[in-house]
Fold these 4 entries.
Entry 1:
Amino acid sequence: MAVKFYKPENQVPLEMHKVRVVQKLSLLPVEERLRKAQEAGNNTFLLHNKDIFMDMLTDSGVNAMSDLQTAAMMQADDAYAGSESFFRFKEAVKDVFGCEYVLPAHQGRACENILAETYVKPGMVTLMNFHFTTTKAHITRVGGSVIELVKPEGVKPQSTLPFKGDFDLKRLKKTIEEYGPEKVAFVRIEAGTNLIGGQPLSLENMLAVADVCHHYGVKSVLDASLLQDNIYFMKTREAQCKYMTTKEIYHLLADKMDIIYFSARKLGFARGGAIICHNKQFFEDMVQFVPLYEGFLTYGGIDVRSIEAMTQGLYESLDMEYLCQGPEFIEYLVKECADYGVPMITPAGGLGAHIDAQAFVPNMPHDQYPAGAVAVALYIAGGIRGMERGTLSEQREPDGTERFAEMELLRLGCPRRVFTLSQIKYCADRVKWVWDNKELIGGLKWTMEPPVLRFFYGTLKEIGHWQEDLVAKFKEDFGDSL
Ligand SMILES: Cc1ncc(COP(=O)(O)O)c(C=O)c1O
């Protein structure tokens, strides 16, 4: 918290920026929201943005850019090969992380594709604190598998542990020994662990994981997509980080990890991505895949304007006055909802507030997709689009059976520097209304289930008639209000 208010009861997160470009929003009447939800197959990914009041689907590629980022885009150097924009980006990577080698790729999953192609062979395992959807899809596609080694507390919805994304170090060592280091393609450390609620790892734990990797001769790969939020938590929750500069933390991590990759749709408030490292050998292992899948080595499938935005964004990801905005707004939203009695993932993490949908509708079976159902209910209630992060977002097992998620989460993403506090309060208020009417919420069933990453474009329908009942109750409680 950068600024302390005179009256403690007035204390709210204070933005250290002002809004100079705005976008008009629309809030449709509730009957329209029901129609749009059903037309979208009850999948919030398939809603049109124009039909959404608060887009809380994600924090990816929708963060507000700064004046300096938009200004930087004007100096983009359009060239297929040898663009100055790329060399400015490379310079920023060197400055922020200290890494010499940079492979641009169009977004985070493109980096994952290259990593999987290069290092994962059939039968190999990859170890990680927790999987991410696209990461796992790339690894399994080339015949590898994923083993999750987050501390047991990480998947406990409510906890006081400040770093729920931490690895269980004992299990990490045991698993490497069990499979043998030669069978471990790499250990992936996911900063700001997305699927368990944007939960951070401590610096101490990340460095210890890197040490274990070095000890066994296994590669360490840091997914830094959510590192900027993670660094905010290190600075505010971990004593040894309090007096370190953010840059010192970036450098220390980069010195210890073999390979780092990131989605610049998150890290750096932009679009794009990159794999970076100190070691020439790793660069050479992977470089062939950039022209093959992405584009020439000096643009990697990224528009040069976005490369400029990414460059400026990387510098901004060092600035605590920018870094604090997301986590502080999320903490505020989590507290408002929790004070209403809504089961939330605690402590608050980065990237968004997370509702524990399993506790929200405790009698709903996993295969009726509780988090997906609560997501649709919230869209109907308030034009708010969240994202299901539960069983629906899982892949089926190879034998076709459902893999039930460890946590059924509804994520309310908080794109950085985008929402005002009154919008966040509106969101908490509508969540409270859905919570008070939770007994009306029913499940969902597939009408079209894609075989891969089904949550992106599969369609479902309500089981029974619960959505119409929810609209009737809304009309009763809110009258003519939107
Ligand atoms: C931790 C993490 N890694 C990787 C990715 C994939 O990045 P992208 O969406 O840019 O492909 C994401 C995206 O949400 C993420 O959160």
Note: The chain has two domains: 8-58+322-478, 68-318.
Entry 2:
Amino acid sequence: MMPSHSLRRFIFLSLTLCALIACSISPTSLPATIPATLTRVPASRPTSAPVLPTPMLTLPTPGKDLRQSAGAPVRQVSLRADLDYFAHRVRVQETISWPNRTGVALPHLAFDVLAARRPGVFTLTSGSVPGDPSATFTLNGAMLKIVLSKPLAADAVAVIAIEYTLDLPPIPRDADGTTGTLGWSVHQMNLGDWFPAVSAYRAGWAAERNPPHVVGETTAPEAVDITLDLGVRNAPDGLQVIASAPAEKVDGRYRFGLTGARSFALSLGTDYEITQATTASGILVRSAYFRQHAAAGRAALQTAAAALDVYAARFGPYHHRQLSLVEADFSDGMEYSGFYFLGNEYYAEYDGTPRNYLTAIAAHEVAHQWWYDEVGNDQAHEPWLDEALCIYSELVYYQATHPDLVDWWWDFRVTRFKPGGWVNSSVYDFAAFRPYVNAVYLRGALFLRDLRAAMGDAAFLDFLRRYRAAQSGRVATSNDFWSLLETYNVPNLARLRAAYFTPLPSPARTPIVQQSRTAPDPEQSSACTRPPDDTTRVQVDGHTVNARTLWMLKLAQRLYGGPGCILCVVQGSYAPGLKESFGTHDSGGAVDISIRNPANLDQVLWDEAPKMAVAMRRAGFAAWYRPTGMLGPDSGAHIHAIAIGDPELSEAARRQLDGPEGYFRGLDGVPPEYKGPHPDPHGGPVICPWMIEMGYKDLR
Ligand SMILES: [Zn+2]
């Protein structure tokens, strides 16, 4: 996002799978040719897409041991979708073939269902696992959990068949990359993040660990081979379909295939003008825009095509055979495999020069085809791995195409925002977009600038190429980045790293499900580490809490790392009868935290309070900033927190977790007598695997 394999084989997995699960796709054979374009295209350089041979792939038998199969099976998603354009409704049959390469037996699978972020959009109508009739399907917020009747053995293949309906919402007027990518406007119908997607498994499923958040992307998608068979009815004449891959039209339906992809997006409409170009390396680039923005739409096409060549020459070849960009009825940009949206505001502001967001973001989103799509990452916990590289890639684009604009770019994109913060922050460290961008993107760009200066251009580019090649098709981690970098002779690397990165081990590369009930020293622990089960009473700042709560406060203080003081308790636990706490502090696990500057108690750290609350959430509290007067005329500003899973919670405290006003419902715990509840001001719960083990779950 911006503030924001070529088609090796065209696999009609759907056909093969349907033989297994009896869905209703007629087994027609493929036509010999694929039309170059779907619609009238005033192409700048008309081209004919190459037609590749299309060998059929045989699906492994469900549950069959991979070691007995010839060649490693790939992860496959087969989609059959029927869109009623007028009704804004899509009915989908999806089949996922997922070989278990985790090395461990898995009792359940978890998929990201971003379409379920908004109520009323995603309705699961059926789910089945061939050979396992008692498998259960549960949608928890934006996560689909499939519990198998017996664990999926390491190296076995799970086949999951689900059916669902999408009732596309109107795109709101102030839409962004979260709310505009799935929905319709008078100009377009967008299908981004529309199907349940396979998430990475690393000591637990990313889909369970990464709830949607107000800031940034949160998925860690696996690379999959995708086929889509799309039927459209009740559409006006002249409907245009722009997608992550070229379409072929068979019996009135559109068919697509994309290999090694993290996603598959489409945009449909009747108002697009489409121009296209072919890059020096033979990639077809298509730009779809609204007629009043024709100059901007053509400029975005030229930028995208040039950026593809610049990046291919420096990072390695583009791994699909087509790239589409679509003017979006929402702000910012959003990347998908082989496709991106670019906000209409950038087109409207386009000034005929390369000195603007249209050009910079068009180049940024192209870079996501390397950093996000070819090399995947956990976008919630390690967003710098794609975003820092993508914003820095903007500079690489300008250096190659407009070297006179390099100083302009640094000022326009980075230095004027006076960036601060740790590059390796997680999206959950932020409650607002600008501080997130400043830390992860902008300081990330500064880090890469300094790294390149330390290494020299040739070694820096060699490193990026080798990192891309080594991580192609994988979900890379920070550890992968640093281990490869350490094989280069980088002067002062440790000092450079310490200037931009917290020493905090990233949860994505640390096993975060603790097997032992005695948790390690909080100084040695990461976010989502399960706290110890120790309810010994201890004193903090003259207030009583238990040892478990104190451990969590210490972890939160370290995760936070800012000027505020999370150990500055102003109200402890085991304090019955406090009127404005309505019983939540009567027993264990409850604390109120000061937001005053410990170095100057006259100063209230207003801007720090949300960051402190988010750090406390990562340490296992349900924590909310309570502004002055929220709970009565005498209540001062503070952070109220309940230690999730504390064995001695009062009834009122427990109610703030999963009761009607609870944290896990995306609410703020304020009961109706105090005019609550309100939506969670910090973007929804942080749900750690140990909470799920204890029986908590996303109730939104
Ligand atoms: Zn981005």
Note: Residues 1-2, 4, 364, 368, 387, 390 surround zinc ion (CB under 6 Å).
Entry 3:
Amino acid sequence: MFSRTEMLDLVVINGQARGIVVRNLVTGAIESHAADAVVLGTGGYSNVFFLSTNAKNCNTTAIWRAHKKGAYLANPCYTQIHPTCIPQSGDHQSKLTLMSESLRNDGRVWVPKAADDKRAPGDIPESERDYYLERLYPTYGNLAPRDISSRAAKRVCDEGRGVGPGGRGVYLDFADSLKRLGEGVVRERYGNLFDMYERITGENPYQAPMRIYPAVHYTMGGLWVDYNLMSNLPGLHVIGEANFSDHGANRLGASALMQGLADGYFVLPYTIGHYFASVKRDPVTTDHPEFKKAEESIRTQTNRLLAVQGKRTVLSFHRELGKIMWDECGMARTEASLKNALQRIPALREEFWKNVRVTGQSEDFNQALEQAGRVADYLEFSELLCADALHRKESCGGHFREEYQTEEGEAQRDDANFAYVAAWEHKGVGRPAELHKEPLVFENVHLQQRSYK
Ligand SMILES: Cc1cc2nc3c(=O)[nH]c(=O)nc-3n(C[C@H](O)[C@H](O)[C@H](O)COP(=O)(O)OP(=O)(O)OC[C@H]3O[C@@H](n4cnc5c(N)ncnc54)[C@H](O)[C@@H]3O)c2cc1C
């Protein structure tokens, strides 16, 4: 076990994944590990949006660097936006807080019927409230799936009916449940969440409705893998949120944790044995020139980052990138917004390499340097995410293109042209990636429009 260690490169020898190069986060030492196979379980890339519900240190470095070594990255544009998060409170926030999905079992979602209604929620009579999920989706009501509920919240806020500072919020109201079940039952079910909400917002949800707004939560794209959880690079296996597999179900609220557990407990222990038994590998040590090359390229990148000595912090670049991503490639995307993002990201990347200021040294505990490497990767990866979103001229699940919606504002798929996994091959930074299509073939069920009416 090597804790406080960050993988910074994948080593590929004779077309097989044969090890990794890491940085010791305490001493800064660059170290290599040779192996018969590599398994990445390094999580998702929500933090490319800067603000998300993920922990601050979740990042894309492991999968992005493996991608640059030849592993295909599939469906990066599919992003799950979770409807029940505490709204952003200001520009200086570093992450967002998820309020559990379970709250929608007993909470009712509403906004005022009229735009710019600044009254306190208790002063707005029932007849002037719009319980829009119950109105639009009578069968599922407040339990409509995440993508549908998130977009509905965005729509009412775009109409000027959002609540709270900045108007980017909707109410999640427990008044009816408190009356029906009593405070004791509600406290038993959700007490910890109510306490957490009060500690963060200073508002007591037993007395006034919570305010919630959608936030980036989970990423369905990731490194492409086959049924054995192996990428297109022999020996490189990818599990959990880091791969793209099975994530179609997740976008509707199915269990991401279960997929991680299934990959790690039930699939990989069996499939990796098959790889070992069936593929011949030559003995390899960390003295191999490919390890030395990878170590050298990490040292070169580190020195380059430290040498810029510009005027802007790493955080300011990350925040600006996140704003581009959220505004232009967030809950709703258009051809124009994506083209705009694809212009601005390379420009920001160029500025990063001329004007970033990374303090401290390489052979030391240096979080500014760690962050700089990750943000450098986001500045490359985000371009692929937007290119994928631009090429997919349809809406589906975690990808909503405003041009492709039904008359009722629901996602309009184009199964004739887009029923495939988009697996991208890296062709160099700033150069278009090559698209490989893996057709999705349905034999026993037929694709059809989702309906939650
Ligand atoms: C707030 C929140 C609530 C959630 N609630 C639910 C829920 O109720 N149900 C559900 O099913 N799912 C839920 N999810 C989603 C679920 O938790 C994740 O999808 C799941 O944890 C992913 O597991 P993983 O092991 O693939 O990745 P992670 O749990 O993200 O683990 C990845 C690990 O790899 C490490 N790592 C990353 N890069 C490197 C690197 N370069 N070098 C070394 N180490 C690296 C990370 O530090 C981390 O320890 C929630 C997610 C969040 C953020």
Note: The chain has two domains: 5-78+220-439, 82-215.
Entry 4:
Amino acid sequence: MIAGMELDDQVCYCFHVSKRKILNYIRLHHPRRASQISECGGAGTGCGWCVPYLQRYFRESQQEQISEPELTPAEYEAKRAEYIKARKGQSSSEDEETAASE
Ligand code: FES
């Protein structure tokens, strides 16, 4: 899990999906693939920034082991801003492919 992220903090900023929603989705729907988390409010189908984090939540749900990067919600948001800046206007159709693949 992301250290410092509270359940009500957003993981997917594009679609305003909170950590709570994602964890509940995983717990209730038992997705077989990380990409199925996109069914939770479209998480991961926008810019693609949160996809690795969704995959991490998925992996952590599969195995009890938890390895947390030391990110606060503010750091997480700032890193996303850097990520968006680095992408420099790639098309959103590529984002969807990114979100759909694992
Ligand atoms: S932050 Fe989740 S797709 Fe952009």
Note: Residues 10-100 form one domain.
